[in-house]
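Q: I'm a student working through a structural biology exercise. My instructor gave each of us a protein and asked us to get a predicted structure, then write a short paragraph describing it. Mine is GPI ethanolamine phosphate transferase 1. I'm not confident about reading structure output yet, so if you can add a plain explanation after the tokens, that would really help. Here is the sequence I was given:
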Amino acid sequence: KEIGFRLSSLIQQRVLIKLEAEDISKEIEPSQGAKPNSDFSQPLPKNKAETNIRINKRTKKNMGRGDGILGIRDAAEGGSRATVTRRKKWLKRRERWLVVLGVVLHAVYMLSIFDIYFKTPIVHGMDPVTPRFQAPAKRLILLVADGLRADKFYEPDSEGNFRAPFLRSVIKEKGRWGVSHARPPTESRPGHVAIIAGFYEDPSAVTKGWKANPVEFDSVFNRSRHTFAFGSPDIVPIFCRALPHSTWNSYPHEFEDFATDASFLDEWSFDQFQSLLNRSNQDPKLKELLLQDNLVVFLHLLGCDSNGHAHKPYSSIYLNNVKVVDNIAARVYNLVEDYFKDNRTAYIFTADHGMSDKGSHGDGHPSNTDTPLVAWGAGVKYPRPISRSNLTDCGFRFIDEHMHDTPTPTEWGLHGIERVDVNQADIAPLMSTLLGLPCPVNSVGSLPLDYVNMSEEAEVEAVLANSKQVLSQFLYKSQMKQSNSLNFKPFKPLAHYSTMLNEIEYQISAKNHEAAMKLSEELRGLALQGLNYFQTYDWLMLMTVISLGYIGWMIYLVLHVLQSYTSLSGYPFRKEQTVHQTNDTTKVQLCGCLFMGVISILLFIERSPPLYHAYTTVTVFLWTQIFSEYQFIRALWNQLHGRRFYYIIKILGTCAVSVFILEFLVNSFTERQLYTWCFLIVGVIASLTLFKSLPWRSGIPLFACLACWFLSVFTLMPAEIPENNHLVIGSGVMIIMIGMAARWLDLHAEGNKYWLSICNHEMKTTSFPMLFQLQALLVGLSSVMVSLSTSHRIQKRELLALHQFINWFIAGFSMILPLFSANGLLSRLTSIFLGFAPTFLLLSIGYEAIFYGALALVLMAWILFENTLLYASKVKRSPASLQNVKDDVGLEFGNRYLQLSDVRIPLTFMVLFNVAFFGTGNFASIASFEISSVYRFITVFSPFLMAALLIFKLFIPFMLVICAFSAITKLNRLPRLGCYFLVIALSDVMTIHFFFLVRNKGSWMEIGNSISHFGIMSAQVVFVLLLFALTNIYTKDIHISSTHPSSRKAM
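A: Happy to help. First, here is the predicted structure for GPI ethanolamine phosphate transferase 1. I'll explain a few features afterward.
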């Protein structure tokens, strides 16, 4: 014991002498008459206790000399141990509170898009405008061929014969024709609502999953005396279920069988109508009802839509269905004319949407938006030859952004007859006018006068009634907003609408119909603009509040990181803050509460929705917290102001590069191919950077370049992953080879300073010597099971229970093994890579299995790049910057302060995190939900278990990225929570961008994608934290070797 004590004392004395000797030249300046260092001039310690006291005094003296994110040297000394403990507990509570605040903030702000973009335009309480003209028709027949494309309807077949001879004869002899332009989403329900009710898709239908209109609305059927409707169970009940004056019927859903020719559905609708007329001969009440005026007959013909989905619109079945529809239109016309014999029936034939060549619809492609429109009968103009005088409104664009007077294709054979195109919502006021009914009160359609055959005075009255109906919606919305607003801003162009109405009435009474028509159309156009004005009235206020909230959240996170994880946490102005901070903070928070209360009162007076209060409360609260730190912000500004101009440029340059990378990531959500160019360029830059520190013969620069280039291939591949069993098996071999290479490197890189930190030397060895061989065996066994399971499925054989058990066992057991691996960086990451590989292989169907290995190679290249920068950098690091500052509350033992250059690590993490998301598609891709992906685990349909397996498959690449990120923070001795907060702050830059990219117009897929992109970024505050917690199970005990002898003991 005595020998041991003396040896220990001697070693400690030598360490103390060495430390004091290193600083004596800094602390003593003979030329200035400085006194010798008192500690150094003292005699050597006599015992172990005195030695420890001297060492502790010297250690405290050296603490806090590291360069931080602003390059400021911290000279503050810590307080007592008890104070430090309390402050650390306070920091943990604050960070838990920050996470909770982030979750609440993102959840509340995510709901804001429904108040901004997806607020229903439908209002109730307007009175219908009774027209002042005589109805030209007693009844109207509406035929809607679901999914009928305009070109397939008008063009001839391969033999030169036209597919719709009857309706073609109508176009040439009896009525008018054109193209009805639909607005995306080009789906059945929105299309029929536009035709019958006169308005386009209600954005708030997103809350119903696009399955139904969330708000009751008016329609032509509501205004009719009676409506007869027959057709699909998905369409007819929307308009007739709650309509008392309607007679309707629909076939069972089972009739909609894609495996058969669906034209029989059209015949079913016709048969129902024919049966109705036949029954009326024996039913006097029905007969009397049919002879009344203001009747509507609606036949929904679904055959083209079903056949288009099943067989594509260029198939013989679809094209033959066009002939069936034309034949039904001819039979309906003959049947009605023979029954009523009064020439008081108007006919309209159209479609709700078209059909793409792929057999789908929904977007704004012309094949989906262009539908046929043919009108004839009572009140409809006859055909008119085309002439130059007919070409008007050449600058007008339709609702689908197509130009007015688009040239008619020559193959249609109708170039000599005037074509009158309309917006789809214009059909509703056209039907109302033909029947002499008030337009639906929610309609935004404009009456197409070129279809109406009435006197000039009646036409003016019809347009005026249409304009008054739109104006009534505008006035109702204006009144509602004015009654609830303290600072109401009216729509100035219609401030004197009554004067315009009086002028129109005067012109009508003076028989100046042309001037009255022009004023009426102008009034209608202004009213439509006014509707859009009040629909977006609160947008500026809400978007400002939400944007300020996100900006405040990011600033607050940055301030927290600066105060807790940089050298500013111990800067001398901390003492300055404590003098006045309590009183000043109380004043700021009191002002914030008063301001919050004033805003809440104003919102309450304006009867704003409850969520408006939540948006403003969160935003005001965040900025109150920011202003509470104004002492720190002022001191920070003073330090920046005193820095060299070069350093300010460096900060601004870092910010600019960060924003560029984040905007690149935003665009990558819609253009996956951008990652290909990204990794091609990054591969070159990384290899050249490494070459400055490493020779080419080391292989590291070449490896980094090839790994990036290999990964760049995958974002060029289709998201719909084709099944390829051989690729999955081959990727298993590749994964084993990557594991063997990493294992060899781990065991044979001793003595190389560039590999020392990541290899297994001097670390805890695994308790299972054959662990690597066992993991490699499981990867190989999973490849064999992939082959066996797939062969059973291909041969239509049932998956054996033994095979199913083996697959579950391999997947579960392999993910536990990394916990027992050696705790060296490379050893543990290799074990994690091999541990998740069997599960990923068993859930793979094609090239995504190779993506797993490619992503791991890039992650390894990232680790090697950071390791090279750490140990080969020409910038000297102060030893104190690598040590823990004991009196700092933000740093755990062994961590250093964050620096400006460390921003590259969160940015790189975000790029790789997104690559893991988009490398083989995304959550919405077809491949993500391919049933064969889970067939090796379960064959009985179980949606929840299958969805869980598929989502876990998508999570595995994320977990690899986060494990590598955690290892790099340990390698660089960075505080991981500080990096997490930087990731969240940077991701919210993307969140703000996606907030402004949310769409409420377009196809359901486009609208849904814009919402999902915003939602994905909003959820990262929780999603990333949960993955951090999960992966921490595997990475928490990773130990890093050090090339610095002075710090190796601390680690």
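A: Here are two points you could use in your paragraph. The CA atoms of residues 225 and 294 lie 5 Å apart. The first strand starts at residue 139 and ends at 145. It's a good idea to check both against the output above yourself.
Q: Great, thank you!
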